[in-house]
Amino acid sequence: MKTNIRKFPAVLLLAVLCLTVFPISAMAAGVAEVKIPVSVELSGEKPSPDETYTIILQGEDEAPMPEENTITITGAGKAEFPAVEYAVPGVYTYSVSQQPGKLENGHYDNTVYYVKVTVTNGESGDLEAVVAAHTDAQMNSEKQDIGFVNSYDPVDTPTPVPENTPTPLPEKTPTAVPTRTPAATITNTPVKPDSNLPASGTSSYTGTSSYTGNTGSSHVKAMPKTGDNTNIAKWIAVICVSGCVVLLAAVFVRRKKKTDK
């Protein structure tokens, strides 16, 4: 019995030493819940239908995480990550970023937000949490709301072509048709014999030729009139015949005289 009484002070001293070396964290009643809000804004020519954006939450140093660490927002709007529960006071850090979209004309906000959640014991004994978001990893910048601004370039929309519309054929260049020159017309005009010429047993015919028509770049020379030349030839022929007649008559007379002698 005396032995047990002597051991009790030793056990009590050991318990006091353990409390001094290994302090026990103070536990407040209940837990603190935090929902991190996120927004998406759009500018430029908005796509149709609306595009869906994915926001990702990542914890650091084994920080408590929600049931789902991704949320989606279709078009411009707001959303919250599921609640994160904190049972122990402390400082917890996260990062929030947007996954790039897939449209070629889209420019997606690639800002990374660094979130610090500070959990403390409140005056009432409950846990209290304060959330602050920054754009630098050191979290020295001003506090900001978590928001992503996505912009879009204009899209060239092709002009619709109505159905059953015939395709126009290319215009043909007209071919030059050569102009035909009408054939020349030659008209023979008979000329009556000159009544002043003596009848000599021969007949003559003179005429004139006239030409009408388009000759283009060529020139047709008119035939000279031969009426005057023909008359002169006739006079020469008449004189020659007359001379021959006179000569024959003279020869005939001489022979007759010789015969009479």
TrEMBL record:
Region Disordered: start and end of each range?
151-217
Span of the signal peptide: 1-28
Superkingdom of this protein's organism = Bacteria
Which portions of the chain have biased composition (kind: Pro residues)? Answer: 157-171
Gene3D superfamilies, per database record: 2.60.40.3050
Q: Which residues form the Streptococcal pilin isopeptide linkage domain?
A: 42-153
Q: What is this protein called?
A: LPXTG cell wall anchor domain-containing protein
Q: Which organism is it from?
A: Blautia massiliensis (ex Durand et al. 2017)
